[in-house]
Amino acid sequence: MTDARPVRRPAVTDTSDPCFEDNEDALLEGDRPFTPGTARAAFSHRAFRTIYLGALASNIGTWMQNVVLGALAFSLTHSPVFVGIVTAAQLGPLLLFSVVGGMLADTVDRKRLLIVLTVVQAVFSVVLGVIALDTSPSKVLLVLCVLAIGIGNALYAPVFSAVLPVLVPREDIGGAISLNSVQMNASRVIGPVIGTFLYARYGASWVFFLNAASYAAVIVVLTWVRLPPPPASGTQGFHRLLEGIKVARADRVVGQCLVVIFVFSFFCLPFITQLPKIADSHLGIVPKSGGYGLLYASFGLGAVVGALSIGTVFAGASKAKLTRYGLVAFALLLTLFGLLRSPGPAYPVIFVLGSVYFAVITSLSTVLQEDLEDAVRGKVMALWIMGFGGTVPFGGLAGGALMQHAPIAAVLAGGAAVALLLAWWTDLRPRETVASTAVAPA
Questions:
Q1: d(Cα 430, Cα 152) in Å, to the nearest integer?
Q2: CB of 105 within 8 A of CB of 159?
Q3: How many other CB atoms are found less than 10 A from the CB of residue 88?
């Protein structure tokens, strides 16, 4: 039986690596070298930079669609439960299909698979736009189409997550993860502003059509770059699906990272799914308005700042400590947000909340990815995506049901309490650090 524990790779020193060619070109052209591990160092690698910019363009379209889907679902029914159902159809497949995507990421041609899955999501986004042309669209067809897009995304996400870190040397993985978090959240800022503007003036269907067109950016950049092949592995079939779980059980840090992301996503993040309900009931902001788009954009802008800070201001800081402190700050801010009753203070508070939220996520992801060997990265990251994306909609669905019977502030305070418990329990320091601390003299 092979040992499932991940082994740290040495820093990349093979000058035949495409990343090394990028750095060598920069030095020969007179560019100053970048500090390893920073966001600037990661962005200096040509393949990473190309994929990164294409993903940014596509994700802007995705977040246009995401924010409008939530607002449309609430406008059709004024039910937080139906909002939760639509979100579960959109993100729930991540919980079931991410492991399959992780298996495929370590088995088949990644470039071809990413292109096929991108086309599938684009086609169903067009279908979604056609459904939304009706003034009273079928709720069943709406949910089924969103589910099809969600399945495509669930297969796509672990493949993309497995590809991104291997486009840079290991010493720059932290910067690459930070930048990827930035583009995810920059799109969360730009997308909602554009999406809510188009939704208020032209209807939801045109937002969905524009999102379908945005997938072309990913297809174009994928044809421009050469992706590394999947690593060789002796395991096949169902055993490959279990290998990520074996790694998590064998490595304390990996296991804790995955437990934290699952628990945090389910219990602490229902406020994201139920933001249309919170905005309407607590803050007097109509979901089909520019004010709601600004609220969502404020949250996304905060997330950009939080993610970028991990690869810049806090590039040299302990990500294990940042995760713990961030969970405490998140709990305090989430409680405060639940107590607000007017839109004015809500914008700065949700900005800071978004910043702390994604500083926690980025720190946690950095700790995890720096601990992984490439041969098991796809399988473990599939578990991460199950927790980070797949658990959120079900937590949101449960949170929506609770909000029909309990005050919104109480539901958010419950999530804050769980974040405090995670801060107390979590210890992501490497095993060597924990051991040295335990034997240190008083």
A1: 35
A2: yes
A3: 24
Give the right CATH number for 32-224+238-430 from 3.60.20.10, 1.20.1250.20, 1.20.1270.10, 3.40.50.2300: 1.20.1250.20
Chain centroid offset of residue 432 CA? 30
Look up tokens 């990265």; give the residue. 377
Q: Quick one: how many helices (H) and strands (E) in the chain?
A: 20, 0
**What is the tens place of the pLDDT at every residue in 414-438?**
999 999 999 999 988 775 544 444 4
Q: Do residues 199 and 68 lie in contact, with contact meaning Cβ atoms separated by under 8 Å?
A: yes
Residue 422: HSE in the Cβ half-sphere, 13 Å Cα cutoff: 32
How many CB atoms are located within 10 Å of the residue 249 CB? 12
C-alpha distances (whole Å) from 80 to each of 77, 132, 380 are: 8, 20, 33
Q: Domain segments of the chain: what residues?
A: 32-224+238-430
Start-to-end Cα distance in the chain = 42
Which of these, 23, 21, 25, lies nearest to 34 by C-alpha position? 23
Tens-digit pLDDT profile for residues 209-229: 999 999 988 888 888 877 767
Centroid of chain to Cα 333: 20
Report CA-CA distances (Å) from 392 to 97, 263, 265: 15, 10, 5
User: At a CB cut-off of 8 Å and minimum separation 6, what does 273 contact?
Assistant: 70, 83, 84, 87, 392, 393, 395, 396, 397, 399, 400
- Per-residue DSSP letter, 44: T
CB atoms inside a 10 Å sphere around CB 298: 21
- For the segment 283-301, what is each residue's pLDDT rounded down to a tens digit? 999 887 888 888 988 988 8
Closest CA to 69 of 138, 143, 141: 143
Residue 167 DSSP one-character state = G
- Checking if the pLDDT of 440 tops 90, the result is no
Closest residue by Cα to residue 225 from 119, 115, 116, 118: 115
Task: Please give the Cα distance from 107 to 176 (Å, whole number).
Answer: 23
Using the CB atoms, write b or e for 197-229: b if 16+ within 10 Å: ebbbeebbbbbbbbbbebbbbbeebbeebebee
Alpha-helical regions (H) of 93-203: 93-105, 110-132, 139-163, 173-202
Instruction: Give the residue, 235 or 398, on which the prediction is more confident.
Output: 398
CB neighbours of 220 closer than 8 A, spacing ≥ 6?
54
Q: Give CA–CA dist 413/366, Å, rounded.
A: 28
